[in-house]
Design a protein that fits this description.
This protein is α+β, with helices and mostly antiparallel strands. 36% of the residues lie in helices and 15% in strands. The strands form four sheets. It has a five-stranded antiparallel β-sheet, with helices on both faces. A two-stranded antiparallel sheet has the order 6-9. A two-stranded antiparallel ribbon has the order 7-8. It is globular. The chain starts with 7 loop residues before the first helix and ends in a 20-residue tail after the last helix.
Length: 351
């Protein structure tokens, strides 16, 4: 196992006892932010198998410019709330075992894949709407957490007010770009100024997940049993989470009647969460996603420059970064050959 200096079987014995037996190891093939590995082991002869997730940085570092210990803190803290997450077991940084700290959590039974969710056949309309509603309910739980009482300000910078939330969010993205940028980016400065001039007021300040939607959450029997991928978590306008929903608000129209879409989803979210997120705020944060895209593109480029990148990091540092720049340029009117319907871009993600 690449996160360990010594054999995985020895590590399991060290952590879980001499009788612990390695059954299976599998590297998760999706995603480019960090290493995710699945380990199945048996704690003792005749005992039921147990499943673990090992999570650590790639050799050249993460594509996402947030530290691994922040992700560990989020999982560990949310494990004491109503938000469904995989339970964290421990943080590992002992030098005799690893040069790259990692953490281990339980693997939750389920799958991110939902049969027929992307199927446009009308017979699956109810399924698709039900899944969308389930995700909205879980987002509502996240957005209603008392993040101050939970100590999230230790890792996540919070805006001073609902009026400053959008500007605070943009400033954070620009700082991240400045830290890792490989070239001068006057385009980013111009876009940030344009977006700040359009900044909306947030309905409240919430813990926001960042990357969410299809491919990020673990389902079992139609219910989300674990919310994953918290690397881009922030404190701010909950509308920001609607800017990266990855297909979880399907547009469904039958016989000229709109069954589901953003308007219906926001109505349902408002009813179940008590938070008044507007379509206008969602549209604003979709625009800011392109700044984030340039940011993690440049972070991936720094890894590529070290000669330590995997193929997805190379792709993120080149093609994804270039697309982000074009989308930003379109946003401030420098190019006009791209689709102006920003909701069509909700699925952009590096995960």
């Amino acid at each position: 196992m690449e996160l360990l200096k010594r054999p995985l079987a020895d590590y399991l014995a060290d952590r879980f006892g001499d009788e612990a037996e390695l059954i299976e190891y599998q590297r998760f093939p999706r995603g480019s932010s960090r290493i995710t590995s699945f380990v199945t082991y048996r704690p003792a002869p005749g005992a039921p198998e147990e499943k673990l997730v090992f999570r650590g940085d790639l050799p050249g570092g993460s594509t996402i410019p947030t530290p691994l210990d922040q992700e560990y803190f989020i999982y560990d803290t949310l494990g004491r709330t109503a938000v469904p997450v995989a339970p964290v077991l421990f943080w590992e940084a002992r030098p005799e075992w690893t040069d790259r700290p990692f953490y281990v959590r339980r693997q939750i039974e389920g799958s991110w894949e939902i049969p027929h969710f992307m199927d446009l056949d009308p017979q699956y309309d109810e399924l698709r709407i039900a899944i969308s509603k389930e995700h909205l309910r879980k987002l509502g739980i996240v957005h209603n957490l008392d993040w101050k009482a939970l100590g999230f300000e230790k890792y996540l910078s919070a805006p001073a007010s609902v009026e400053s939330a959008a500007v605070h969010f943009i400033d954070g993205l620009v700082r991240s770009i400045d830290e890792y940028k490989m070239e001068a980016l006057p385009l980013v400065t111009e876009a940030a100024d344009v977006l700040k001039a359009q900044a909306p007021v947030a309905p409240r300040l919430s813990l926001c997940k960042g990357t969410n939607g299809l491919g990020e959450e673990v389902f079992r029997d139609g219910e989300i049993v674990a919310m994953s991928d918290w690397e881009e978590a922030s404190i701010g306008d909950p509308a920001a989470d609607f800017a990266s929903l990855q297909n979880f608000i399907p547009e469904i129209e039958r016989d000229g009647r709109k069954l589901w879409g953003l308007e219906q989803a926001l109505d349902y979210y408002r009813e179940t969460s008590g938070i008044d997120v507007t379509a206008e705020n969602v549209q604003f944060y979709v625009k800011t996603r392109f700044l984030g895209q340039v940011g993690y593109g440049h972070k991936a480029a720094t890894v590529t420059q070290k000669g330590l990148a995997d193929i997805r990091q190379v792709w993120t540092g080149t093609e994804v970064q270039h697309l982000g720049k074009r989308l930003i340029a379109n946003q401030i009117g420098l190019v006009t050959d791209m689709d102006p319907n920003w909701f069509a871009e909700l699925n952009l993600t590096v995960e």
